[in-house]
Design brief:
By secondary structure, the protein is mainly α. The protein has helices at 2-8, 29-35, 42-64, 71-101, 106-138. The chain has a domain at 87-134.
Length: 139
């Protein structure tokens, strides 16, 4: 009666449990390791992988490297922005004040000239700073 009770509730039979039956072909890991012949020693495979990885990383760094802008080019952009932006800003502020104070074109014209003067003053300041930096770099 004990056998029928175990079969009815899927109770395992007492005794040793057969662990480690192996894979689907019935092979065990320890048996495979003895018969396996490696193609390359592990060290040379790792060294080969490291060399290829280093080569690919250098190629990627070269491909994605950003060029540093030329200092002269940057100074030229700054000068251009000052010569355009200062009079434009003065004109916009003058236009708003003219509409607010009802003094049509006079404040706009005056602030455009003030913007030109400020722009020229900033260009002189930029050129003095870049020549002093160039002088410091040569010495």
């Amino acid at each position: 009666m004990a056998g029928s009770y175990a079969a009815m509730f899927f109770v395992p039979e007492p005794g040793p449990t057969p662990f480690g039956r192996g894979d689907a072909q019935g092979r065990r890991m320890a048996e495979d390791e003895r018969d396996e012949v490696q193609k390359l020693p592990p060290d040379s495979r790792l060294e080969s992988l490291e060399r290829r990885l280093e080569h690919l990383q250098q190629a990627e760094a070269k491909r994605t490297a950003k060029r540093q802008p030329d200092p002269g080019y940057r100074a030229g952009q700054l000068v251009l922005s000052q010569l355009v932006g200062c009079p434009l800003g003065g004109g916009i502020v003058g236009w708003v004040l003219d509409r607010w104070l009802d003094t049509r074109p006079w404040l706009m014209v005056a602030l455009i000239f003030v913007g030109f003067a400020v722009g020229i003053w900033n260009v002189i300041r930029i050129s003095n700073a870049s020549t002093s930096a160039a002088r410091d770099g040569r010495e």
